[in-house]
Amino acid sequence: MSGFSAEWLRLREPADAAARNPELTARLIVWRRRYDALSVLDLGSGAGANVRILAPALGGKQHWRLVDHDPALLARADEALRRWAVVRGMKVTDESGTLLLEDETRQCRLEWSCLDLNADWERLAVANAQLVTASALIDLVSADWLERLARRCRQWRAAVLIVLSYDGSIVWEPAAEGDEWMREWINRHQGTDKGFGPALGPDAAPTLATLLERLDYRVELRPSPWRLAAQDAALQTALLDGWTEAVRRIAPETTSWLDAWSRHRCSLIERGHSRLSVGHWDLFASLE
């Protein structure tokens, strides 16, 4: 499985939080009311952003199992969540390998699992998971992996919240020659193997919606685009650099236009004249 740096996850977290679809967040909160204590499985948990964003909204008793293949990211998540809890005035307690965060309105028990979500799939034996969630994950995986995920969620009768799956849309403002070429090459790169087989890329969220509907889920799919402006220059620059490098890797012989395009875009970002929209899907599905 391809990895992501802690710095990249830190950089994108505010944009992710702002982009999440509010209708689906509201639906999740209504659904959560049926449970006294909620068990959550967070796949590809990274530095713990899902906990920081969802735990305050979910409230009450929560037991999270955070799963990632990178032990350094899991350690970073532990540190970041401790700091986050202290800032929010929560009590932090270590309990035999789990972390307990609590205040007057919620109690979050956090458990860490270092697993490769491809090779170690069968070790995901979480029979009591009531909510399965992931952020910016499923556009990296294959159709076969996504089908296994859907079947496993159905076996657990778990609700599913999958957010910030790339939808293939990249719009720069002001527009420039080369924007569409770049988008097309990025979407080709999205289909390359990220450690799970040929990736679904922009087709991932609609594919998961179809798979879950066939398993009798009620599925809601809503847009959650990044809308980046001058204050998001660091994230825009990171995206520009990453996309440019990705195109160079997969098409080194066809990128004579790329250097000029990249310099132009970089100049617009540095002068505060660049805006960027990147499309995503959020998905919420439940059996009830």
Annotated CATH topology = Rossmann fold
Alpha-carbon distance between the two ends? 33 Å
In percent, how much strand structure appears in the residues?
A: 25-35%
Query: Which CATH architecture would you pick?
Result: 3-Layer(aba) Sandwich
Elements, N to C (H/E): HHEHEHEEEEHEHHEEHHE
Q: What is the domain total for the residues?
A: 1
Give a verbal description of the structure:
- This protein is α/β, with parallel strands linked by helices and about 290 residues long.
- It has a single domain, classed as Rossmann fold (3-Layer(aba) Sandwich), CATH 3.40.50.
- The protein is built from 9 helices and 10 strands.
- It has helices at about 5-20, 20-30, 50-60, 70-85, 145-155, 180-190, 205-215, 235-250, 260-270; strands at about 35-45, 60-70, 90-95, 100, 105-115, 130-135, 160-175, 220-225, 225-230, 275-285.
- Strands 1, 2, 3, 4, 5, 6, 7, 8, 9 and 10 form a 10-stranded mixed sheet that branches.
- A hairpin with a 2-residue loop joins strand 3 (about 90-95) and strand 4.
- The longest helix is centred in the C-terminal third of the chain and has 18 residues, at about 235-250.
- The model has no long low-confidence stretch (mean pLDDT about 95).
